[in-house]
User: Which sequence fits this backbone?
């Protein structure tokens, strides 16, 4: 049971915890595990019975898979997705979500202004909400994650395991590279 | 949903008259809780007696009236007869309170011919001595209001329902436990349901929260909650046995009360509340008694009291009926027929859960107002063979059922998050690609080039064979590399029963250039369906 006022949400895996009011950025090439990493954060927050939201920018390729989300442990009834958000509206949509849900994951469209980014960072801090941006955030971030894919193994005639890694930078610690099972 | 409502006016008075406890003619005033007038007969109303009056005021207006205390148990007993008579018309009736019941007309219309036929049969089943009023309209609230206007039968189609509702005062929301909220609306100058319905839903919810959302739905002629198409799983029912069998209502009532408490607190742990509950009993001789009750929201404590009271009425009605069961009760079961997400009333111990949902709901509805209803969605796991088929999207607020049932399957499922959602209830889809599922779905799929060693596009024969293994995958912006490993094919014969819509395709898991994708091949054309990301 997590108190609403508790400042830290535990996350299984390399990140260990998420601090409320912070901005986390996740970068990585397609297929390097960015989405899986995102899903693990969503799962950690929904398991504390809090709400999460994902923002898909207009013209973005790919959307979350419900099956993969369930396999990652995300409670789908606490996940909302806002689709097809244009660049002009992006900052307003993210700001509205930070008011309402505990964690917001957002595709970073091209051309987000540094002023908007600063405003959203402040908003997240004031509301005690977590903003996870997929891309390079033009403002300070608490933690920067970089997904690095790895070799896949086939077992029994199908894809089975993936030994990937995540590079973690932030919280005043040296850059670490952690393997993810 | 088209609903038929049967309303017996002044039911407490009718009951007392049938029992011979008050004269068949002349003014009667029935006193309810708190020393206030609960019901006044037509004669007393003509003298100016109104519900909510104090006894003194009622007697001052109408000195010749017979004043008597209400007997809810007797009302429920008498109404059980009405419900039994209506079983010839429908199997899906739900009692709201003694004197008022409703059922959806959909199946009955198909069986009896038209809504007029159904309404007429319902009226005949109850019988003219009880003076039933029958109303048919879209939605439960409208059907009730129409029944109150009926003489004795009134049917409004959906357009008429909307016009009729718009002219009703907001105070009718009292019937759905929103009496206080209606008072607030009146003070704000919103006098009719039409005034309320004219406001944008997002603003109403942003200002008034879940009460506002319910009221707005009702004002638009919808049911309080979107109809649930899936029945709650049977594990949610609560049952208690009687040993020795219970012959008196009192013995059964004690068990009934604890069952009600257990049922609602278990639902509350899953963030749910019941809006319709079936009371089932079995007797020593194997008779089976079943009746469904509908009850409104309120706080957790109120809901528990309301359910316990209805169980008591029902047991009392069965055990004291002349043609009741011939032996004692051996089993009592409470089955939730319709569950709804618990609203903000029900804070859990820390008060965090309901509040988080309330806050999120406000933000999401505000966004729906800004971007359109369909822009804010929730994922729903569906059956299917490809990731795109498996992922459904429902606009926020519409999705059904309100929760994935899998999460309700007891503690075992909740302890291990990895097994969550992979329930035995999910039908298996032969040919579906096994887990792990690709996390990123392309919908529509991305065009790709998938060739074998000879440079020819990969093709699958009718037997699922291919001449040469795949050698290279190219997809703009994603991958252009030799195949490092692959698995499959999973051949699908889609809609093989339909000559026009029939499609053949095969799925491959392909690793190329360090990226794992799900590739679909159909008629020699390859697409990347999803990415293992």
Assistant:
């Amino acid at each position: 049971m997590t108190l609403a006022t508790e400042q830290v949400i535990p996350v299984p895996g390399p990140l260990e915890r998420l601090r409320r009011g912070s901005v986390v950025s996740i970068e990585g090439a397609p297929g390097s595990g960015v989405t899986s990493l995102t899903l693990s954060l969503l799962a950690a927050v929904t398991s504390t019975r809090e709400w999460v939201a994902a923002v898909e920018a207009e013209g973005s390729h790919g959307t979350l898979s419900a099956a993969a989300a369930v396999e990652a442990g995300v409670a789908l009834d606490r996940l909302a997705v806002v689709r097809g958000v244009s660049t002009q509206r992006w900052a307003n949509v993210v700001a509205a979500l930070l008011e309402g849900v505990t964690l917001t994951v957002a595709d970073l469209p091209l051309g987000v202004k540094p002023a908007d980014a600063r405003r959203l960072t402040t908003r997240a801090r004031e509301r005690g909400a977590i903003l996870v941006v997929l891309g390079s955030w033009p403002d300070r971030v608490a933690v920067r994650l970089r997904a690095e894919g790895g070799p896949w193994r086939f077992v029994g005639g199908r894809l089975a395991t993936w030994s990937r890694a995540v590079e973690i930078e932030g919280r005043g610690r040296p850059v670490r590279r952690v393997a993810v099972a | 949903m088209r609903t038929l409502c049967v309303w017996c006016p002044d039911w407490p008075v009718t009951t007392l008259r049938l029992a011979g406890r008050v004269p068949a003619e002349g003014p009667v005033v029935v006193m309810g809780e708190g020393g206030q007038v609960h019901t006044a007969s037509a004669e007393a109303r003509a003298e100016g007696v109104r519900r909510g009056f104090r006894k003194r005021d009622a007697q001052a207006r109408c000195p010749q009236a017979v004043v008597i205390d209400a007997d809810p148990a007797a009302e429920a007993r008498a109404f059980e007869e009405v419900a039994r008579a209506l079983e010839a018309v429908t199997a899906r009736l739900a009692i709201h309170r003694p004197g008022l019941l409703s059922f959806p007309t959909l199946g009955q219309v198909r069986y009896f011919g038209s809504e007029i036929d159904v309404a007429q049969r319902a009226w005949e089943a109850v019988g003219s001595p009880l003076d039933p009023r029958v109303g048919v309209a879209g939605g439960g609230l409208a059907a009730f209001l129409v029944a109150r206007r009926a003489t004795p039968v009134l049917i409004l189609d959906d357009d008429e329902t909307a016009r009729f509702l718009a002219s009703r005062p907001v105070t009718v929301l009292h019937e759905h436990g929103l009496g206080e909220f209606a008072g607030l609306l009146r003070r704000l100058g919103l006098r009719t349901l039409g005034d309320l319905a004219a406001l944008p839903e997002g603003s109403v919810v942003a200002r008034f929260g879940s009460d506002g959302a319910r009221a707005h739905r009702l004002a638009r002629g919808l049911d309080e909650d979107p109809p649930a198409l899936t029945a709650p799983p049977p594990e949610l029912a609560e049952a208690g046995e009687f040993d020795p069998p219970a012959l008196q209502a009192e013995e059964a009532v004690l068990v009934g009360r604890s069952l009600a408490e257990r049922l609602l607190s278990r639902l509350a742990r899953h963030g749910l509340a019941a809006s319709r509950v079936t009371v089932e009993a079995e007797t020593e001789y194997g008779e089976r008694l079943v009746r469904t009750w509908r009850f409104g929201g309120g706080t957790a404590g109120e809901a528990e009291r309301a359910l316990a009271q209805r169980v008591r009425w029902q047991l009392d009605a069965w055990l004291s009926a002349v043609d009741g069961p011939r032996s004692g009760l051996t089993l009592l079961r409470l089955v939730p027929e319709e569950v709804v997400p618990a609203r903000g009333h029900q804070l859990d111990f820390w008060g965090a859960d309901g509040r988080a949902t309330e806050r999120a709901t406000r933000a999401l509805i505000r966004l729906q107002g800004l971007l359109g209803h369909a822009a804010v969605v929730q994922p729903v796991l569906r059956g299917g063979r490809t990731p795109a088929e498996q992922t459904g999207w429902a606009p926020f607020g519409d999705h059904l059922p309100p929760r994935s049932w899998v999460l309700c399957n007891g503690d075992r499922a909740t302890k291990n998050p990895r097994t969550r959602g992979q329930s035995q209830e999910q039908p298996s889809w032969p040919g579906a690609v096994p887990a792990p599922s690709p996390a990123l779905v392309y919908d529509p799929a991305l065009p790709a080039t998938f060739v074998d060693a000879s440079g020819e596009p990969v093709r699958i024969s009718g037997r699922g064979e291919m001449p040469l293994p795949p050698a290279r995958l190219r997809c703009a912006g994603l991958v252009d590399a030799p195949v490092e490993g692959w698995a499959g094919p999973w051949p699908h014969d889609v809609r093989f029963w339909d000559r026009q819509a029939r499609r053949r395709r095969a799925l491959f898991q392909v690793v190329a250039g360090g990226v794992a994708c799900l590739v679909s091949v159909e008629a020699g054309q390859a697409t990347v369906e999803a990415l293992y990301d």
In short: Residues 377 and 394 of chain B are 5 Å apart (CA to CA). The two ends of chain B are 43 Å apart (CA to CA). Chain B touches chain A through 68 residues (CB under 8 Å). Residues 440-532 of chain B form one domain.
